[in-house]
Specification:
Layout: E1 2-8, E2 15-19, E3 24-29, H1 35-47, H2 51-54, E4 73-79, E5 84-92, E6 97-98, E7 110-114, E8 120-123, E9 131-133, E10 136-138, E11 145-147, H3 149-154, E12 156-158, E13 162-165, H4 168-178, H5 181-192, E14 202-203, E15 219-221, E16 227-229, H6 235-261, E17 268-273, H7 282-285, H8 288-299, E18 304-310, H9 314-319, E19 330-339, E20 343-351, H10 359-363, H11 376-389, H12 396-410, H13 416-427
Parallel strand pairs: 3-18, 3-19, 7-17, 17-18
Antiparallel strand pairs: 1-2, 1-4, 4-5, 5-6, 7-8, 8-11, 9-10, 12-13, 14-15, 15-16, 19-20
Helix pairs in contact: 4-5, 5-6, 5-8, 11-12
């Protein structure tokens, strides 16, 4: 498990430090403050490769570099198979690379990274390793499996090694025809990741969608009775079924490789996921964190799983209230702060996770820093109303004129009107 990260002169802040929880870690913060960047760093710390270094087709997952002149370093520690690993890597400006130990990296278990654009990276201790020959690393196997969003669906190829993964369309079709362990796992994962108990994601019969496409295309049985090819599914459903497929594929291939090597399968999984709620309807956002914890337990029982997830969704945070455990979980928040001495800077804090009840309370928390859970126009008219209520010179004519505008913005059921009516009657504005 990833235990610790410290960045010095790397990223949007002079220094960032995280002590991660062993189970669930949530990252919040405005756009551009470094959530995805921290996930990239976490992946690199565990695998020693940047995603885009392995698959140049990616538009994200690029190598991190120092932001300012001077020394840049990344310190990290994680629980490996044999013993805990701690290391400080320093950026070598002449080599344009990060320092690292030669030879096979320590085994952090299975490492999964789901990026927001649909790309996906996997490091498998049974399949991704290299050996030392003298003082040179000789990579006999792929350093990791890194999929672009297109690779996920159509297959992953390597110029040197050829086909590495058949892709969702081909594998799903093959699994469904075999009706073996992989397809049963896929059905179970799809059911667990469904938007609601009454709206399960269920595979339909394989179909052909074009005279020019010889593939058997998986379908999904929709709530309204029709079967829709997965290629025509909505963005939200496509994200979930791609995630389900990759989780099953990663675990199945790891089990097969472990059997071939006559070794035990991994005892731990680190799952990094960026914008966990991307493309998902609110009812899905309320379920996704708990569903992923449940899925990992179902897919890989007796395996320790750590999730590190970035989110912009108050529903995701509200949904975590039921099972968040401060002994095992952590919430980190990125903010833009300023003072006279240091000017404007990005600051990372681990915040206490407070159960706030109503999701709107999360919008006004440190996670999102909104003034209220209302629209911008509603905030403006309420500020105007507050001034009017405290102004002794405010007359009934102006009050009635402003009230008409407020009703267009706020609507009759708004709780504001109870307070407004009480004070307006006392001031004689309603007479």
């Amino acid at each position: 498990m990833l235990e610790y990260l410290k960045l010095t002169n790397v990223g949007p802040s002079p220094s960032m430090e995280l002590k991660l929880g062993e189970r669930l870690n949530l990252l919040t913060g405005d756009n551009g403050l470094g959530k995805s960047f921290l996930l990239d760093i976490a992946w690199w710390s565990l695998t020693r490769k940047w995603p885009a270094e392995i698959n140049p087709r990616l538009s994200s997952g690029l190598m991190a570099r120092p932001m300012e002149s001077g020394k840049g370093s990344i310190a990290f520690s994680f629980t490996a198979k044999v013993k805990p690993v701690s290391y400080v890597s320093v950026y070598d400006r002449k080599l344009q690379a990060w320092s690292g130990k030669v030879g096979r990296p320590s085994n952090p278990g299975l490492v999964l990274y789901a990026q927001v654009d649909g790309s996906f990276a996997l490091w498998d201790p049974a399949r991704n390793y290299w050996r030392m020959k003298g003082n040179i690393d000789v990579q006999d196997r792929p350093p990791a499996y890194v999929f672009s969003s297109r690779d996920v669906w159509n297959g992953l190829r390597d110029e040197e090694r050829g086909l590495l993964c058949n892709g969702l369309i081909s594998d799903w079709g093959g699994w469904q025809k075999e009706r073996g362990r992989a397809f049963k796992s896929l059905c179970a994962v799809l059911a667990a990741l469904s938007p609601s108990e009454g709206e399960k994601i269920v595979p339909g019969e394989l179909t052909r969608i074009s005279l020019d496409d010889p593939r058997d295309i998986p379908t999904l049985v929709m709530p309204y009775g029709q079967s829709v090819p997965v290629l025509h599914a909505s963005a939200g459903i496509r994200r979930i079924i791609a995630l389900a497929y990759l989780l099953v594929w990663s675990w199945e291939e790891h089990l097969k490789a472990s059997e071939l090597l006559d070794q035990e399968s991994t005892a731990q999984i680190v799952f990094l996921i960026d914008e966990i709620e991307a493309h998902l309807h609110p009812k899905w956002q309320r379920r996704i964190v708990g569903a992923l914890l449940s899925v990992m337990d179902t897919l890989a029982p007796n395996v320790n799983v750590q999730i590190v997830a970035a989110t912009h969704s108050p529903l995701v945070l509200a949904s975590a209230e039921a099972f968040f455990d401060a002994e095992k979980d952590a919430w980190f928040d990125l903010d833009c702060v300023s003072d006279e001495k240091n000017g404007v800077r990005v600051e990372l804090k681990q915040r206490p996770f407070i159960r706030r009840g109503d999701v709107s309370n999360w919008l006004t928390s440190e996670a999102f820093d909104l003034e209220s859970a209302r629209s911008l126009e509603a905030e403006r008219v309420l500020r105007d109303a507050a001034v009017a209520l405290s102004d002794d010179a405010f007359d009934s004519h102006r009050a009635r004129a402003r009230e008409a505008h407020r009703r267009r913005v706020l609507g009759d059921p708004d709780p504001f009107w109870g307070r407004w009516r009480f004070i307006a009657e006392k001031k004689g504005w309603l007479s």
